[in-house]
Design goal:
Blueprint lengths: L3 H18 L3 H12 L5 H6 L7 H40 L18 H13 L5 E2 L5 E3 H4 L18 E3 L10 E3 L5 H9 L4 E10 L11 E12 L3 H16 L5 E6 L4 E10 L16 E10 L1 H6 L7 E8 L1 H9 L12 H4 L3
Length: 350
């Protein structure tokens, strides 16, 4: 028949064996509750029997109980410390940084293809003396149409699907709109200064029209204006020839054809020979061999008179182009909507 002393030794042996197999803090806590817990722990349960033992047996069992309790507490403390060290070592190993590995490249953004093309256009004209000015995107009808030789009853207004706005001013009701082109700044610049004038006007314009592969309701334009004494059509051609070769390469061929714009006289459209077929004719150029890139012409005398310039003394030329169209031609992009779709797969190519 086993005595309390034998049972204490047996509990010690089993407890130490199980403690050796404990692999984490949660299991260690469960071990402590099993063997040292105040209510149902095996060692406290045995100690409750001490008062009922005979005096001699109680003395021996008490000494053995104190030894076992001390041994288990010491073993528990050592095991907990070992598990915590192992956990720290494991965490440090997982978080370790190999300083010999190459660094991760930081992700950096890039310029939008429209912005990139816009800057290249500006840099092509800057050596020829053009400075950049910007104008309001919300514009008066006077500057957008009237001052540019397009009165209210002029059929040319049908070319612009205009977004009109409600407006009030000190003089009563005046038509206000989202500008349909950047040409209004021609008038604003000439009103503000006397010749010589040589400016580029980049900015967004707005049209109330359905979008498709070649049309957008919001897009960019770049307007150019030069006014001075003795400016001729030859100056216009020379300026645009220089621009085309700086922008598209020194071997670029250029073509001018008559066209109509209310605020220039005469007006022309300018085209360059097709990138794909070199003028032979292909699908890109519609078998014509040419790609139209801008409209231009000599500033209409009526526009000069309206801003107070004497057309018998001063002449000038103006031109306008779309950066998106230039980018589409240079990079073979077939849909203008790609520029505004926020598709990183498209934008990261530039």
């Amino acid at each position: 028949m086993s005595t309390l002393t034998d049972e204490l030794i047996d509990v010690e042996t089993r407890a130490l064996e199980e403690l050796g197999r404990v692999a984490d803090v949660d299991a260690l806590e469960q071990w402590r509750v099993t063997y040292q817990g105040r209510r149902h722990g095996r060692l406290p349960n045995l100690l409750e029997r001490l008062p009922a033992l005979p005096v001699e047996e109680r003395r021996e069992a008490g000494r053995q109980a104190n030894r076992v309790r001390s041994a288990l507490e010491s073993a528990y403390t050592e095991r907990r410390a070992a598990l915590e060290r192992a956990h720290v070592t494991q965490r440090l190993s997982a978080e370790a940084i190999d300083v010999t590995l190459p660094g991760r490249r930081a992700h950096s953004g890039g310029l939008h293809p429209t912005t990139r093309t816009l800057r290249e256009i500006i840099e092509a004209f800057r050596p020829m003396g053009f400075r950049v000015v910007e104008g309001p995107e919300v514009e008066w009808d006077y500057y957008n149409f009237e001052a540019l030789n397009i009165p209210a009853d002029h059929p040319a207004r049908d070319q612009w699907d205009t977004l009109w706005l409600d407006s009030e001013d000190d003089e009563g009701k005046r038509p206000l709109l989202l500008r349909t082109h950047t040409s209004p700044m021609q008038v604003r610049v000439m009103e503000a200064q006397q010749p010589p004038v040589r400016v580029l006007v980049p900015g967004r314009v707005f049209r109330h029209e359905a979008t498709d592969a070649s049309h957008e309701s919001v897009f960019f334009q770049v307007e150019g204006l030069a006014v001075d004494r003795g400016v001729t059509f030859a100056d216009l051609k020379g300026t645009l020839y220089t621009f085309a070769r700086r922008m598209f390469g020194p071997d670029r061929r250029v073509r001018f054809r008559c066209d109509f714009f209310p605020f220039v006289e005469p007006g022309v459209d300018m085209a360059i020979d097709c990138f794909g077929c070199r003028g032979a004719g292909c699908r890109t150029c519609g078998q014509s061999g040419w790609l139209e890139i801008m409209g231009a012409g000599m500033v209409h005398p009526g526009v000069l008179k309206r801003v107070g310039y004497d057309p018998d003394i001063y002449t000038g030329f103006a031109f306008g182009m779309g950066p998106e169209r230039i980018a589409m031609l240079r990079h073979g992009i077939d849909d203008i909507r790609h520029f505004y779709a926020n598709d990183l797969g498209f934008l990261e190519q530039f």
